[in-house]
Specification:
By secondary structure, the chain is mainly α. Among the domains are: about 45 residues; about 30 residues, no CATH class. It is about 45% helix and about 5% strand. It is built from four helices and two strands; from the N terminus they run H-H-H-E-E-H. It has a two-stranded antiparallel sheet. Helix 1 crosses helix 3. The longest helix has 18 residues. It starts with 15 loop residues before the first helix and ends with a helix. The relative contact order is 0.07.
Length: about 120
């Protein structure tokens, strides 16, 4: 109840799937924001937030990041006490970075690999 003794409807949170569906429906609807929001019972700010989340999700999905798997495979990088890193890429390419590596050299290497 509000301060005047009237019942107030409490909105539940929408799931990510519902948010995605609403944003996609709006974009496919051909309606103006105002018309779509009126039909769906949404505020303009809510629809804008949902569309922003959807756009950010598409940007993430289109990024070049890949999944990483931590492996307890063979000891790499020389000594058993090494705290270096090794990255194995498809096609057999392997990058190994030993303890105390030069960060600027790694940055240059990654820049070259991004252009390939």
């Amino acid at each position: 109840m509000d301060e005047h003794g009237q019942a107030v409807e409490v909105q539940r949170r929408r799931s990510r799937a519902e948010i995605e569906r609403l944003a996609a429906e709006y974009e496919a609807s051909g309606l103006s924001c105002v018309e779509f929001c009126r039909k769906q019972g949404l505020s303009l700010a809510t629809l804008a937030r949902y569309r922003k989340r959807r756009a950010q999700g598409e940007a993430v999905a289109g990024s070049r990041w890949v999944a990483v798997e931590v492996s307890a495979g063979r000891q790499a990088l020389g000594s058993a006490a090494s705290s270096g890193l090794a990255v194995s890429l498809p096609g057999g390419l392997r990058i190994e970075i030993g303890r105390g590596f030069d960060a600027s050299t790694l940055t240059q290497l990654l820049g070259v690999l991004e252009r390939v």
